[in-house]
Amino acid sequence: MYANPLNAYQKTAKNTMSGRELEAHALTSAAMKLKEFQMNWDPDTESGYPELAGAVKHNQKLWSILQAELSTDDHPLPTALRERLLSVSLFVDKRSFDILAHPSPEKIKSLVDINLAIAAGLRGAPAMAA
By the 8 A CB rule, do 99 and 107 touch? Predict the structure, then answer.
């Protein structure tokens, strides 16, 4: 039995999600971690850098997985859409490296916005402003 009912719900929800729902959930979760750093930015301290770097790297790994999936010959999405998403993923890579080298809240915002827009598309919902 789970000590926390929320943990039980989250595990059950993940087990019953479709692939699109799972991808949307992962992108949204990564965006919220990044948004937390963006909203709580303190330019006078670098103490949060390891956590920020972890959140950026987590997001980048997620996008690397999406890149690999989109690059397969038998992927069901139309070629033009796959190519556009791969272009977005290249931007995410470049921006991630830029954030790791020179962190700023403005740079983080672009990753948050991209993740939330793609997640909204996966859910079939209009993107909400971050």
Answer: yes
